[in-house]
Amino acid sequence: MDAILLQTLNGLDKGSAYALIALGLTLIFGTLGVVNFAHGALFMIGSFCAVTLSRLLTLSFETVDPTKTDFLGNPAKVKTPYVEAWFGPEAGGTIIDWAVPLAIIFAIPVMIAIGYAMERGLIKHFYKRPHADQILVTFGLAIVLQEVIKYFFGANPIPTPAPEVFKGSFDFGMLIGMDANAVIYPYWRMVYFFFAALIIGGVFAFLQFTTFGMVVRAGMADRETVGLLGINIDRKFTIMFGIAAAVAGLAGVMYTPINSPNYHMGMDFLVLSFVVVVVGGMGSLPGAVLAGFMLGILESFASMNAIKAIIPGIDQIIIYVVAIVILLTRPRGLMGRKGVMED
Question: What residue ranges are annotated as transmembrane (predicted)?
Fold first, then answer.
């Protein structure tokens, strides 16, 4: 029972990342009809927003501390972060420690601006082009963004820790009446799951209960009719592209303490997340979320040693096997709509 519970938690954690990226992919496809293979790069850029803010907050200057000496007996030089000099050691230290959560505020305008620039500068020219052209150009853009990140940040992963209060693990088993130390789970992974649930719920609420969201949903169903009503649906879809970019970026920001950012992490998640979108059903937001969590949990269980001892390497292919089975039985995916990508 403890192994099942632990793998379920691991699956929810991994599925949260899949669901968030797949949600952004589906938003873009559902509104603009574009298959955006650069979406994983947006997840990567979000992670490096956290890295950038962390580095900015730790910028420091040297001062001489007469109370300390170096190995030669001279007054020692110490580095003091500007943040600590401005706000005091205690408040400044807290700001530095909370760099990853604070990066959310930093990443939102950055990701919206990048998404807007991508849509206006490149992707709008491919709206009426075949999906194969869209895949090729956005995949090429993803490679360019990946190499830009590699140039500025290097090829090695950059550890970016969670706030001190969320380091360590808690006894999840005792919380539900199991024996002590039966199920130990990291605090930050639970934070990531609840953060993902909040973002997913916020996106659905925005689309369901706001006038802007209602117009967007109407445009997804019948773009021409909404345009004939005098609504500039193209502008609203451009804004949705920015929102989708922000969702991917926020997923990357909060994932940095779990997986140290590196220049190829976007590609690692992109292929899996695109499979999630296809399994859930192209253009279906609920399907993307459902498939994300479902495949995350299946992948987690497939990584158990007992399972791999029976079927070696199953953890590497389980998602694709499940995708094949689902698409053979339900060609449109779990919650796909008729007519989407069937022309």
Answer: 15-35, 42-61, 95-114, 191-216, 237-258, 270-297, 309-328
- At residue 173, the pLDDT reads 66
Q: Where are the beta strands (DSSP E) in 29-136?
A: 60-69, 75-81
Classify burial at 77, counting beta carbons within 10 Å of its beta carbon; exposed 0-12, middle 13-18, buried 19 or more: exposed
E strands along 53-163, which residues?
Answer: 60-69, 75-81
Q: What is the pLDDT of residue 338?
A: 63
Per the CB < 8 A criterion, the answer to whether 127 and 33 are in contact is: yes
The Cα–Cα gap between 104 and 251 comes to: 10
Question: What is the tens place of the pLDDT at every residue in 116-153?
Answer: 998 888 888 887 788 788 888 988 999 999 999 999 99
Terminal Cα distance for the chain, rounded:
47
pLDDT tens profile 159-202 = 999 999 998 887 776 666 666 776 788 889 889 999 999 999 99
Contact between residue 129 and residue 136 where contact means Cβ atoms under 8 Å apart: no
Parse the chain into domains and list their residue ranges. 2-57+100-329
> Dihedrals φ, ψ of 56, to 5°?
-65, -40
Number of neighbours of residue 154 by Cβ within 10 angstroms: 11
User: pLDDT of 264-283, one tens digit each?
Assistant: 888 888 788 888 888 888 77
Tokens standing for residue 228: 């004939």
User: In CATH, what is the architecture of 2-57+100-329?
Assistant: Orthogonal Bundle (1.10)
Amino acid at 109: P
